[in-house]
């Protein structure tokens, strides 16, 4: 489980999709995009969707998300997205009254109980008192992160001090 804080935009795109029965159907799907501006979010969603769609793509809605942090799962079976509304509980030292502030997160999980488990897992590592005020399933198909490494890219596991050495020819053995 990892979390990422950023500026997120919720988008809706309309395109022709090949259905399982072989027929083409116009669908509207929702995606979340990591971007700094509306313009960048629009550019990113067109670029990402171009990998999956061969025909026309129309952006029908774009809005800045009410959450700033997303909890990503490492499990392949976690294919749904849930909005989790948490209330952070603090005590006002002057009035000694309980104060609750609402914060929304997006959580990737397989089911509602697992989404609750993931929220507790992430928030359990913090010192803040909280209550889960609500968790609802969304219709988001996917989240596109900015500069996310693709699975095709190889990781460079060579330490920095050895990077210059990896391309050099091995030293010859001294003549005897």
3D structure, described in words:
- By secondary structure, this protein is mainly β.
- The protein has two helices and nine strands; from the N terminus they run E-E-E-H-E-E-E-E-H-E-E.
- The strands form two sheets. It has a five-stranded mixed beta sheet with strand order 1-5-7-6-8, with helices on one face.
- A hairpin with a 6-residue loop joins strand 6 (80-91) and strand 7 (98-109).
- The longest helix is centred in the first third of the chain and has 12 residues, at 38-49.
- The termini are far apart.
- 14% of the residues are buried.
- Residues 148-155 and 166-171 have low confidence and may be disordered.
Task: Indicate the mean pLDDT.
Answer: 84
The helix/strand series, from N terminus to C terminus, equals EEEHEEEEHEE
**Low-confidence blocks of residues:** 148-155, 166-171
Give the helix/strand class: mainly beta
Largest sheet: 5 strands, mixed
Strand order of the largest sheet: 1-5-7-6-8
Shape: elongated
Number of helical segments with 4 or more residues: 2
% residues in beta strands = 35-45%
Number of strands: 9
């Amino acid at each position: 489980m990892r979390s990422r804080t950023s500026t997120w935009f919720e988008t809706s795109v309309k395109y022709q999709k090949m259905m399982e029965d072989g027929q083409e159907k116009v669908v509207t799907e929702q995606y979340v995009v990591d971007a700094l501006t509306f313009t960048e979010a629009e550019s990113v969603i067109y670029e990402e969707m171009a990998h999956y769609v061969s025909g026309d793509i129309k952006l029908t809605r774009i809005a800045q998300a009410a959450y700033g942090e997303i909890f990503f799962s490492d499990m392949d079976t976690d294919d749904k997205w849930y909005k989790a509304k948490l209330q952070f509980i603090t005590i006002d030292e002057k009035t000694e009254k309980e104060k609750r502030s609402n914060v929304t997160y997006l959580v990737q999980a397989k089911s509602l109980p697992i989404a609750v488990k993931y929220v507790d897992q992430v928030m359990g590592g913090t010192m803040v008192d909280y209550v889960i005020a609500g968790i609802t399933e969304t219709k988001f198909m996917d989240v596109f992160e900015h500069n996310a490494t693709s699975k095709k890219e190889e990781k460079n596991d060579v330490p920095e001090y050895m990077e210059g050495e990896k391309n050099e020819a091995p030293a010859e053995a001294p003549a005897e």
